Amino acid sequence: AQSVTQLDSQVPVFEEAPVELRCNYSSSVSVYLFWYVQYPNQGLQLLLKYLSGSTLVESINGFEAEFNKSQTSFHLRKPSVHISDTAEYFCAVSDLGSARQLTFGSGTQLTVLP
Amino acid sequence: NAGVTQTPKFRVLKTGQSMTLLCAQDMNHEYMYWYRQDPGMGLRLIHYSVGEGTTAKGEVPDGYNVSRLKKQNFLLGLESAAPSQTSVYFCASSYGTGQGLYEQYFGPGTRLTVT
Predict the structure, then answer these.
(1) Which end of chain B is more exposed for a tag (fewer CB within 10 A), N or C?
(2) Cα A8 to Cα A2: distance, rounded to the nearest angstrom
């Protein structure tokens, strides 16, 4: 069975500061990894994904995440955050065998302060 | 395209009442899912469907039933609501083949309160 741990439930950060949201997963097999973002009162939107290839993946709005197999981590980073990045962020994992199921972490609320 | 839509957006039920949540997608996706979201617990999979006429249990299926009579619709039913089913319910869908299978598209959610 897989599990996903998001180490921080709340991350407050000032505008234009860097941020890292941490995600660790537990799986004995190869996995696909995802970050989803949820803005207030909305559904989840895919932010970025790692399926194969380069271990560093980027999103269109400046976030990046690095897959680290040895540390079983997929931390999300942004060098300079904006007020509009305030949202809840979910890390998720799917192993190649059970493609229909995503296992989600408990979420990290990112609050960007002016 | 509307994407994934959910009906209703809000609902209040009394213990023991029944209701059906409707999910519709216009992207011709094969796979559809129902999740519940509770504070501090992320999203948990209730039931899913890999195609029209098929359904399967997820992580937390007890107290819920589902049906997928048409490819574009996925219904979630609560036969006898309990306060423990107070939650926000999300529907999602994805392609059935290739790497697109792993990207799920979510609806806006239904906030259900059971008193």
Answers:
(1) N
(2) 19
> Which residues from chain A sit within 8 angstroms of residue B109, using beta carbons?
41-43
Strands A108-113 and A10-14: parallel
The pLDDT of A34-57, averaged and rounded, is 86
Is B98 an 8 Å CB contact of chain A?
A: no
Give the separation between CA A79 and CA B99, rounded to whole angstroms: 29
Q: How many Å apart are CA B78 and CA B44, to the nearest integer?
A: 16
Is residue A44 less than 8 Å (CB to CB) from chain B? yes
Low pLDDT (below 50) residues in chain B: none
Q: Using only C-alpha atoms, what is the Rg of chain A? A: 14
d(CA A97, CA B91) in angstroms, rounded, equals 22
> In the predicted model, what is the mean pLDDT of chain B?
92
